[in-house]
Amino acid sequence: MSDYQPISAQLDDVSSAREDGHRKMDWARQHMPILNALRDDFVADQPLAGEVVGMAMHVEAKTACLVELLAEGGADVAITGCNPLSTHDDVSAALDEHERIESYAKRGVDDEEYYAAIDAVIDHEPTITVDDGADLIFRIHQEYPELIDSIVGGCEETTTGVHRLRAMDEDGELDYPVFAVNDTPMKRLFDNVHGTGESSLANIAMTTNLSWAGKTVVVGGYGDCGRGVAKKAEGQNADVIVTEVEPRRALEAHMEGYEVMPMAEAAKEGDVFITTTGNRDVITEEHFEVMQDGVLLANAGHFDVEVNLDQLSDLAVDTYEARDGVRTYELDDGRRLNVLAEGRLVNLASPIALGHPVEVMDQSFGIQAVAAREVAQNSGEYDAGVHNVPDELDREIAEIKLDAEGVAFDSLSAEQSEYMNSWDHGT
């Protein structure tokens, strides 16, 4: 059992922190019509009554609105961070004040504290898990397998976490059902493209006080996140180079008008490098050795393994903080390579980072909320393993959003539905 304490016991001025956290949450709530609409139903129906929800997420204002929604829907909630640098302590403290929520999330923890906080969440014996990166799920399977029989299911938020869980599922090691929230259209088409693209570029610009116009931006990977980063960078008048290992994505990037080349070639050309692959060693020693003086190195993938900082440290003759959130590695020939946010998620881990836009996360967290509701109400319908979120739930969130925006849309007539769902209409 972990003796790690909730955030409220760790802060010197918890009252002031809570006040600041509530102010941030109030602002986010004003711009989250999906969660606000769901809140009315959750309060009335109590779909999570009797459940204990364990969460490992980026604990900031938008996430807090989801956490409160789950608690107001009847759950007891324990939460911690899913990244050592993405927690806002004031928001964590504000959450911890809620009678049905305990928050262990704290910014700047080391590895030992990070997992002690996850263990503290697990000590609550969750019946539902909500994860961003799957660290909570893995910890339960590896260290607390005795709890698995009491867990009805879980939800996974991000691309990297879903990849890990699918690998776990293929090996027959995932012992309860988990919804791949990341893979729904309402998450993938908006959060990964618009959310990652806009927030990564915004936080790099704010951290460095540099412009995008005229710069050469190298995007590592052309999945949904890489596509978003490339699109948004091009929209701010940058020249974009894409690197890929998957031939169809490389062809897609080429057909979209981007230069496509191996990273070994792109390393000589780029002013800014942004990795989005979810894989390790995307940028390594061979690339550092040919980069220009002053380049920016940023990562928009979940873990800090895409830019090999161990190799960069070995090459450097000096390192220092050039600005808040920017660490400069000076090489023996005088070139300076600048790493943002310690190689972690640049849109969440830099000192001034605020994460994805509020409206985008309203959609993603709406999916999380209805997926958690589905787990609580219909867990018996799902075997252990990774599952797609039912399409009707994804559509539910889209319809709430359209209604909030005052956007009307067509529906199929009975004749059209019959035509689309039959096989015997020929020429």
TrEMBL record:
NAD(+) binds at residues 158-160, 192, 221-228, 244, 279, 300-302, 347, 356. GO terms for biological process: L-homocysteine biosynthetic process; one-carbon metabolic process; S-adenosylmethionine cycle. Its cofactor is NAD(+). One of its GO terms (molecular function) is adenosylhomocysteinase activity. It is found in: Cytoplasm. SMART domains: AdoHcyase, AdoHcyase_NAD. Keywords: Cytoplasm, Hydrolase, NAD, One-carbon metabolism. It catalyses: S-adenosyl-L-homocysteine + H2O = L-homocysteine + adenosine. One of its GO terms (cellular component) is cytosol. It comes from the Archaea. Substrate binds at D132, E157, K187, D191. Pathway: Amino-acid biosynthesis; L-homocysteine biosynthesis; L-homocysteine from S-adenosyl-L-homocysteine: step 1/1. Residues 192-353 form the S-adenosyl-L-homocysteine hydrolase NAD binding domain. Binds 1 NAD(+) per subunit. Its EC number is 3.13.2.1. It holds the Pfam family AdoHcyase. InterPro entries: Adenosylhomocyst_ase-like_sf (IPR042172), Adenosylhomocysteinase-like (IPR000043), Ado_hCys_hydrolase_NAD-bd (IPR015878), NAD(P)-bd_dom_sf (IPR036291), S-Ado-L-homoCys_hydrolase_CS (IPR020082). PROSITE patterns: ADOHCYASE_1 (PS00738), ADOHCYASE_2 (PS00739). May play a key role in the regulation of the intracellular concentration of adenosylhomocysteine. HAMAP family: AdoHcyase (MF_00563). Belongs to the adenosylhomocysteinase family. This is Adenosylhomocysteinase. It comes from Natranaeroarchaeum sulfidigenes.
